[in-house]
Amino acid sequence: MKILLVQDVEHLGKAGELKDVSGGFGRNYLIPKGFAVLATRGQIKQAEERLAAQRKRNEAARKDAEALAARISGLTLNFEAKVGEQDRLYGSVTSADIAERLSEQLALEFDRRKIELDEPIKRAGSHEITVRLAPGIMPTLTVVVHGEDGPSSTPEPAETVAAE
To answer: Ribosomal protein L9 domain: which residues (predicted)?
Structure first.
């Protein structure tokens, strides 16, 4: 029996695929549950048109992601923060902060979940960050965190004055 999958079915296939299954499996399980329909010429043609349209949308999205990756690649974002001893920040720079700054620089909305940051940045200095735009498109950018006083705000040891 030839069926056309309407939804993804584990161990069988993805939505839009044409499959050959046993009659009982198709009639008693797949079709009544709404996972598949009987494969007629009309159904097959509609599925092919949907798949072609989906491929076009995916290709356009991939081109947009590649163009955005070219803009992001090599970009440097500067952050100022209060820095304590040993260049540790009093707060942290999170993926939300990076996404906000990236949105300002690129003049478009940017989702914080696309920024691969295992844990917030808690030290001053330069950090390489990967941005996940699409499968296989992952540009890197540089995040530079420095103290509010300047690039290095590590306190100098105080001079001691001997009492006379």
So the answer is: 13-40
Give the count of beta carbons closer than 10 Å to the beta carbon of residue 115: 20
Whether 74 and 132 share a structural domain: yes
The CATH number of the domain holding residue 134 is 3.10.430.100
pTM equals: 0.66
What HEC string does the chain produce?
A: CEEEECCCECCCECCCCEEECCHHHHHHHHHHHCCEEECCHHHHHHHHHHHHHHHHHHHHHHHHHHHHHHHHCCCEEEEEECECHHHEEEEEECHHHHHHHHHHHHCCCCCHHHEECCCCEEECEEEEEEECCECCECCEEEEEEEECCECCCCCCCCCCCCCC
pLDDT over 60 (residue 106): yes
The mean per-residue pLDDT over the stretch 131-147 comes to 91
Residue 59 shares a structural domain with residue 110? no
**Has residue 155 been placed in a domain?**
no
Is the pLDDT at 123 greater than 60? The verdict is: yes
